[in-house]
Amino acid sequence: MKQLIQLKINGQVRDVAIDTNDTLLEVLRENLGMTGTKEACDLGECGACTVLLDGRPVHSCLTLAIRAQGREIETIEGLAQNDNLHPLQQSFVDRGAIQCGYCTPGMILTSKALLDGNPSPTEHEIRRAISGNICRCTGYVKIVEAIKAVAEKEA
Ligand code: FES
Ligand code: FES
């Protein structure tokens, strides 16, 4: 039997009917059509499904939607304001840090959590923060440069 819950996503409260074992990833993508959050391994190993829960990166493929009630959920869809990309999104575009783009939403949300807590991280701290986000295309160099550029601007 479905259960009706409320989730606060990118500042908006959404009513959604779920099964109690639905993951947050399933609810975002399938119930709410928010396909910016990517599904890849479904095992908590690649970081593609990363969203922020109360400001901290979590694997939405391992998070039950029901456990996200009453918490602030942030997805990639919430970052751009009006027609303006978030500085991290813009920096990834400007520096060619995106190829297939599959890792990008998770990578950007993980970076956002890092910079929100530590606006001027070292390269080592950046690399450590994104170590759970796998990119099979870029080799990470441009991703790290893109994050560093935003950190330097904010510092
Ligand atoms: S899809 Fe969730 S960690 Fe890979
Ligand atoms: S850009 Fe393709 S996986 Fe990162």
Automatic annotation (TrEMBL):
Q: 2Fe-2S ferredoxin-type domain: from which residue to which, for each copy?
A: 3-79
The enzyme class is oxidoreductase
Q: Which organism is it from?
A: uncultured Desulfobacterium sp
Molecular function (GO) terms listed? 2 iron, 2 sulfur cluster binding; metal ion binding; nicotinate dehydrogenase activity
Query: PANTHER family, per this entry?
Result: OXIDOREDUCTASE WITH IRON-SULFUR SUBUNIT (PTHR44379), XANTHINE DEHYDROGENASE IRON-SULFUR-BINDING SUBUNIT XDHC-RELATED (PTHR44379:SF8)
Q: Identify the EC number(s).
A: 1.17.1.5
**What keywords appear on the UniProt entry?**
2Fe-2S, Iron, Iron-sulfur, Metal-binding, Oxidoreductase
Matching PROSITE patterns, A to Z? 2FE2S_FER_1 (PS00197), 2FE2S_FER_2 (PS51085)
Q: Which Pfam families match?
A: Fer2 (PF00111), Fer2_2 (PF01799)
Name the chain's protein: Nicotinate dehydrogenase small FeS subunit
Give the InterPro entries listed for this entry.
Answer: 2Fe-2S-bd, 2Fe-2S-bd_dom_sf, 2Fe-2S_ferredoxin-like_sf, 2Fe-2S_ferredoxin-type, 2Fe2S_fd_BS, Beta-grasp_dom_sf, Diverse_Oxidoreductases
